[in-house]
Design a protein that fits this description.
Length: 378
């Protein structure tokens, strides 16, 4: 015979145990850490958005009433609420369940004279709090952490006292962190300014060095041009010249004949029509050297002879040593223009004797290479 019916299984109890002080402290502490994290995130977003970002706007009314029409009994309800309620700024954004107050010797949402009297009576009857004095006076910023970490004990503090205590500590930690970041940024900015100033000084020194080198180079160039101008002037004064002396010749006359012959070749001077009718020989070409009528081949057109001839041409048209450089360049460019193959082969080469055309082409190319080298400084 079964006796299973004599036993009944007990149903699970619905009794809710009151939270312990440690559970209350954990809930409040983690909630405050979350609030601090949200606050830091808002500050970071505002800083990254810049000054152009608009501040958060208050939420719109959800009462459904048109603006400007007050709700019924609004003044009476406001007066009643303001006289009976006590606003606690420290509890903002952190909701404290009502059961926490019962476990922490609170009889309501806020501390009143009645609950304070009960707390004092309990202290009188049962002695002071078992929490050491060191724990009562311990600074919250030395115990709390902004992220994670152990939960500080609630001790004999009320819910509002504990919440205010940990919030004050976290605010102090956040201010310390902000001060540290501000100091780091100031130091970084100071270092960047010093580095920028150092780079400017370095660049200034580099520019000054380059300027001095340029000035030294210019002085040497002007001195060389003055010396060259003096040599050319002396050579002109001692016509027919030194090192380029032509037996029975006149250097000045040679230069004048060179210029007039090229004008005739280009059809701008006297005798241009006669040149068209006459077949030209190698010696008839106005080469940029002294004694060009005695030149028989390209080998006779040496760089020294061409350079001396063009230098005398430039000196003759140059009143001062300062303008010597531009005068030399102008004379060299004109010689290149006259002897350029495209121009020379089209205007002058067809008039040359068939037997001398190869030598003339070789002489023109030889002169062009030398004058180009003089122009580029090679």
């Amino acid at each position: 015979m079964s006796r299973a019916g004599d036993y009944s299984v007990a149903k699970p109890s619905r009794i809710k145990l009151k939270p312990t002080p440690d559970e209350i402290a954990t809930t409040l502490y983690r909630a405050e850490q979350a609030r601090q994290a949200r606050f830091a995130e808002r500050i970071s977003s505002a800083n990254s958005a810049g000054p152009s970002s608009s501040p958060p706007q208050p939420p719109h009314s959800t009462s459904g009433r048109r603006p400007g029409i007050p709700e019924p009994n609004l003044g009476r309800r406001w007066k009643t609420d303001s006289s009976s309620a006590h606003f606690d700024a420290l509890a903002d954004d952190v909701r404290i369940p009502a059961r926490f107050y019962d476990s922490a010797k609170h009889r309501g949402r806020y501390t009143t004279a009645y609950t304070t009297a009960i707390d004092s009576a309990e202290d009188f009857l049962f002695g002071p709090s078992s929490v050491p004095e060191r724990a009562r006076t311990q600074r919250a910023e030395d115990v709390v952490q902004l992220y994670g970490g152990p939960v500080p004990a609630m001790g004999n503090r009320t819910v509002n006292e504990y919440l205010g205590w940990i919030r004050h500590g976290m605010d102090q930690l956040r201010k310390r962190e902000e001060d540290r970041v501000r100091q780091d940024r100031a130091r970084q900015k100071e270092w960047e300014e010093q580095e920028a100033e150092r780079m400017r000084e370095k660049q200034r020194a580099k520019d000054e060095k380059a300027q001095r080198a340029h000035e030294s180079k210019e002085r040497k160039r002007r001195a060389a041009e003055a010396e060259e101008y003096e040599r050319a002037s002396k050579r002109r004064r001692e016509e027919p010249g030194v090192n380029v002396k032509v037996e029975g010749g006149d250097n000045k006359g040679e230069r004048e004949r060179y210029l007039s012959r090229w004008k005739a070749f280009n059809g701008a001077g006297e005798g241009g029509a006669d040149i068209v009718e006459v077949e030209l020989a190698f010696a008839d070409i106005p080469w940029p050297v002294y004694g060009s009528r005695r030149v028989g081949s390209a080998e006779s057109l040496s760089e020294e002879r061409i350079e001396a001839f063009l230098l005398d041409l430039a000196t003759e048209s140059c009143p001062t040593a300062e303008s010597m450089r531009s005068a030399k360049r102008k004379v060299q460019m004109e010689a290149i223009r006259q002897l350029h193959p495209d121009r020379f082969h089209g205007r002058v080469l067809p008039r040359v004797k068939e037997s001398d055309k190869a030598k003339v082409k070789e002489g023109v190319e030889h002169c062009i290479r030398i004058v180009n080298g003089l122009l580029t400084g090679r």
